[in-house]
């Protein structure tokens, strides 16, 4: 199954209501013609399509109810809740043998104003009980962690207070789960504008079940993802920084993520296609997966404003390879709409690579 959010999509003439496109998989991959558009007006989906809701602007997946089917978590941070025009809600759309079937709404346990509950999402086993849990970010400095999500929605989340500055979604923010110390329990990386050491700056804070104090990684990341790039059994963390046209990979291990064990790659790094140009936005989006089947996770990096040939800002995606030494530029590959086998054609301002998953 592949999912894509169209947060600004109009629904029945309602602008910006938002929609999710679900493409069903098959034994030969994503099946052409087997797609479905899901909105808040779809049967069984909580809520109603309203102007500016941006349903599906944030997405996550996981088998939250343990029935063997993947569920879809959709954040609607601009949903009007009562008199709060940006209160936000989260909908869990339940997977089944016939596809998505019904949904459950999660609301802000401690609403104030303009919380944008659901602005960031991450699924992981944060309690070590073998069941997926859900982390939900807001526009303030807290993250709500739901210990499992039953279909009734009846669960009491706990709030994780972070050192991220309130409303830092304006200054880039990310929420990512991964087992960075290899202890069998997922950790949580929260990125945003950080107040520490007497000043402000971008940082990613990594919270583990064992440590009360987070590890601070001084990187202002717009995008983040986790996977095991070096095959050592611990997840690693990759951060995308489009302002710096770079990605930085931090290697995990028994001690967790360490600032000293990191690799930064740009389009000027050996083996990486393209050139480091100020407006490319290399690092705008990152996603992980073992694309070549060698046992090491790889990273797809979006460069949405990449110029290909003479076509301005058509965009491209660069695949960086994992290895025993971690993420590397060796064997990297660039893909765009002019690449053989890729649908479409390079056109100005297509922004191919603005999102990867």
UniProtKB/TrEMBL annotation:
Matching Pfam families: FG-GAP, FG-GAP_3
Ranges that cross the membrane: none
Keyword Glycoprotein: yes
Keywords associated with the record: Glycoprotein, Hydrolase, Repeat, Signal
Gene3D superfamilies reported for this sequence: Integrin alpha, N-terminal (2.130.10.130)
SMART domains xref list: Int_alpha (SM00191)
InterPro entries to which the protein is assigned, alphabetical: FG-GAP, Int_alpha_beta-p, Integrin_alpha_N
A GO molecular function held by the record: hydrolase activity
Name of the featured protein: VCBS repeat-containing protein
Organism: Streptomyces daliensis
């Amino acid at each position: 199954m592949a999912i894509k959010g169209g947060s600004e999509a109009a629904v029945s003439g309602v602008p910006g209501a938002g929609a999710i496109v679900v493409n069903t998989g098959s034994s030969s991959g994503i099946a052409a013609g087997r797609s479905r558009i899901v909105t808040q007006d779809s049967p069984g989906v909580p809520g109603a399509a309203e102007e500016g809701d941006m349903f599906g602007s944030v997405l996550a997946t996981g088998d939250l109810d343990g029935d063997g089917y993947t569920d879809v978590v959709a954040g609607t941070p601009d949903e009007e809740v009562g008199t709060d025009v940006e209160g936000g809600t989260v909908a869990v759309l339940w997977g089944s043998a016939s596809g998505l079937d019904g949904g459950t709404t999660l609301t802000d346990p401690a609403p104030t104003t303009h919380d944008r509950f659901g602005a960031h999402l991450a699924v992981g086993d944060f309690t070590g009980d073998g069941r997926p849990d859900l982390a939900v970010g807001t526009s303030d400095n807290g993250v709500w962690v739901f210990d499992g999500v039953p279909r009734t929605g009846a669960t009491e989340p706990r709030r994780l207070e972070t050192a991220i500055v309130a409303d830092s979604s304006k200054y880039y923010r990310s929420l990512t789960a991964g087992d960075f110390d290899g202890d069998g329990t997922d950790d949580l990386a929260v990125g945003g504008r950080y107040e520490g050491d007497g000043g402000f700056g971008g940082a990613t804070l990594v919270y583990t079940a064992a440590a009360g104090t987070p590890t601070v990684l001084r990187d202002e990341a717009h995008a983040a993802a986790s996977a095991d790039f070096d095959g050592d059994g611990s997840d690693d963390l990759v951060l995308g920084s489009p302002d710096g046209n770079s990605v930085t990979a931090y290697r995990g291990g028994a001690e967790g993520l360490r600032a000293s064990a990191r690799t930064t790659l740009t389009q000027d790094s050996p083996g990486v296609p393209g050139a480091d140009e100020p407006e490319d936005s290399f690092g705008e989006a990152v996603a992980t997966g073992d694309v070549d089947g060698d046992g090491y996770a790889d990273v797809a990096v979006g460069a949405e404003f990449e110029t290909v040939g003479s076509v301005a800002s058509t965009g491209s995606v660069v695949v960086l390879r994992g290895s025993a030494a971690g993420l590397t530029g060796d064997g990297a590959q660039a893909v765009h709409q002019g690449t053989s086998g890729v649908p479409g054609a390079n056109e100005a301002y297509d922004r191919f690579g603005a999102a990867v998953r």
